[in-house]
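It is worth pausing here to work through a concrete case rather than discussing structure prediction in the abstract. The textbook approach is simple: state the sequence, then state the predicted structure, then interpret. We follow exactly that order.
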Amino acid sequence: MHNIEIQEMTEEFLKIWQSAGIHLNNQVEGGIQSWLRAHPYPPFLEHLSFRLGNQLFFIRIEDIDGKIHGPGSVRGLLAVAEGNRGHACLLPMKKKFFGGEWVPDRSGWSLIDAKTKKPVDPISLVTEEKIEMTPWELQDMAVQVVKDYLEKQGYQIISWQGNPEVDPAIWFVGNSKGPEWVVIRTIKFPENQAPRPSNWQAIANQCSRMSRIGHFASVALVSTNQPFQSQEEQAVPLWRGHAMHVRFTGLE
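Step two, the predicted structure:
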């Protein structure tokens, strides 16, 4: 369980963020189809992220003149990229002297590696290799499942995040008409029900400053290629970008 800093985008940085997203989307014919993060709401480890083939890219946007600063940090960017076995990238942006439009500082994707500062071409990094999904990816997917469920039930989402080391995963306005929280755990085949974390009371105590109403959600995942022919069969790995079945029966 960790505390995370909640920072919001300034109005000026939001303009940079929007221009950066449009730029990245235009680099792929038909646009990027698998955005992981494409919303401007906290908390922030990266500003934008997406999957291209079997590779994940996590983007931090920077003003080359250093006048406008976005939320989060390079340290957070490196953490989320490492946790997801992805690429941590910086996207330097500049403001045009005439018109004030925000544009990339470089040609092409305009991405640079956050560690080496070398140019990054996402398409050239995509391979045919099967990559098993990391705990971060599985947690992020589970959070999206629960978030979609809550929204379909008519609840207002306050915030959400997919770091498996941070609890809770979701805050929303519940039946109490006030903030309520959700702790989410994933489980893989052959198990179909995740247990509540052993530190549940510690999580509840920490959250009690905002709300004493908490919920638990178990999300079970299994590959669509799982044969289900015997109780002893091995689990088919959950490959990045491949289909899977999801079992979620609601909040506890």
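Step three, interpretation. The chain has two domains: 11-125, 135-247. The chain has a mean pLDDT of 91.
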